[in-house]
Write a structure and sequence with these properties.
Blueprint: H1 20-25, H2 37-42, E1 48-49, H3 82-96, E2 105-108, H4 110-122, E3 128-133, H5 137-145, E4 149-154, H6 162-172, E5 177-183, H7 195-208, E6 211-215, E7 238-243, H8 244-247, E8 256-259, H9 262-273, H10 281-292, H11 295-317, E9 327-331, H12 339-350, E10 354-355, E11 357-358, E12 368-372, H13 378-392
Parallel strand pairs: 1-10, 3-4, 3-5, 5-6, 6-7
Antiparallel strand pairs: 2-8, 7-8, 9-12, 11-12
Helix pairs in contact: 3-10, 4-5, 4-9, 11-13
Length: 395
């Protein structure tokens, strides 16, 4: 009769140092928006999760409603299914009023996957990425992932002129800079860059010999004026990012796109091959159906609703209404003058079920908070707004 050998004692080797990636990324990444979810859930109050950029609306196309097929489980081409690439090309050409070639479009596993692969293409260890701040938080981590340094250039929310913004960029730009990143409509401030600003930023980057990464995932949600697309201003230099997550309410499907010079996108496709490979096949099918049918009508209805609830949330908090996007970015330094006081505010809100994103996630903003006014139905969003207004003494 065989008997199992007794278990051997594990080796007691000395601990290893943290992986280099952990040192590069620092505290960012996991739980980047909030560390207070458990506290909010333990409060016993209805949860008001206004810390993550999402929508309460059902998607323009539900992936569960796709026609039964025996190939939804199969790989697609890394750069996207040809039918989706064509639908994106036609959509972007119509929106931008300029021809778009199929080789200028790359389907990616979400805009996040696309931007990460793009940074892997454009950045090397020791390089610098200039980020107009406040910025989408994951973009800074994307630069650090490659051993590059994100350089925050505070511009949004300061009432600067174009000339003042370019002077700030001049002061931040060193010989190690390789790209300029900006996001319009802006996450988190809700500001929308005008044509004058777009032309000034792209022109400045051209004079400095930098790539331009234009994050336009909220392009369908500019409230008061048409969105200005950056790529037609300098097609050889600008790479733009788009997202089905935001455009059509498909955040969980993980499907996005880059538009840029074909020679750049060919290298991005190579980088994607070694990371996330292709966007999920069902997500690509749903995205194509949205682009060819209900998507823009869905976005138009969502835009009207978002503008209404965003304006009312801003009114209750004594802030200017957002020009676009899905967020308010509030300076609470008058009521909470330092990072410790802000931490107390976030904790007090969590005790009432409200989760907000701390301003430090978006650059050097230790006394700001971000609130997403689309993450829950309007009545719940405004209930969360009232919690914050009371906590700040603005009610």
């Amino acid at each position: 009769m065989d008997h199992a050998a007794p278990p051997r004692s594990p080796l007691r080797s000395p601990p290893l140092p943290p992986p280099p990636l952990a040192r590069r990324l620092g505290a960012g990444g996991r739980g980047v928006y909030s560390q207070l979810a458990g506290r909010a859930q333990a409060s016993g109050r209805p949860l008001l999760p206004l810390h993550v950029g999402d929508t309460h609306l059902p998607p323009a196309v539900d992936v569960r409603a796709l026609p039964a097929s025996d190939d939804l489980h199969r790989y697609t081409a890394v750069g996207g299914e040809p039918a989706l690439v064509e639908a994106l090309r036609a959509h972007l050409a119509r929106r931008q009023g300029a021809p778009v070639g199929a080789e200028e479009v790359l389907v990616t596993a979400g805009a996040t996957g696309g931007l990460t692969a793009l940074f892997a293409t454009l950045l090397a260890p020791g390089d610098e990425a200039l980020l107009l701040a406040p910025y989408w938080p994951l973009v800074a981590g994307g630069a650090r992932l490659l051993g590059a340094t994100p350089v925050a250039v505070p511009v949004f929310g300061r009432g600067l002129s174009c000339a003042e913004a370019l002077a700030a960029l001049d002061a931040a730009c060193t010989p190690r800079a390789r790209l300029l990143y900006f996001n319009s409509p802006n996450n988190p401030t809700g500001e929308v860059l005008s044509r004058e600003w777009m032309e000034a930023l792209v022109g400045w980057a051209a004079r400095r010999g930098l790539w331009v990464v234009s994050d336009e995932v909220y392009d369908l949600f500019s409230f008061s004026a048409p969105h200005v697309y950056a790529r037609p201003l300098d097609p050889a230099r600008v790479i733009s990012a788009f997202s089905m997550s935001k455009a059509f309410g498909m955040a969980g499907y993980r499907c996005g796109a880059l538009q840029g010079p074909p020679e750049v996108l060919a290298e991005v496709e190579r980088a994607a091959t070694f990371t996330l490979y292709s966007a999920p096949t069902p997500a690509q099918r749903a995205a194509r159906l949205a682009l060819e049918g209900e998507g823009e009508r869905w976005a138009a209805r969502a835009r009207a609703l978002y503008a209404q609830v965003g304006a009312e949330a801003a009114r209750r908090l004594g802030a200017p209404p957002p020009q676009g996007g899905t967020f308010l970015f509030l300076d609470v330094s008058r009521e909470r003058p330092d990072a410790e006081a802000l931490s107390d505010l976030l904790g007090a809100c969590a005790d009432e079920g409200l989760l907000l994103a701390p301003g430090s996630s978006f650059g050097p903003y230790p006394t700001h908070v971000r609130l997403c006014f689309t993450a829950a139905p309007p009545e719940r969003v405004l209930a969360g707004v009232d919690v914050l207004a009371r906590a700040l003494g603005r009610a």
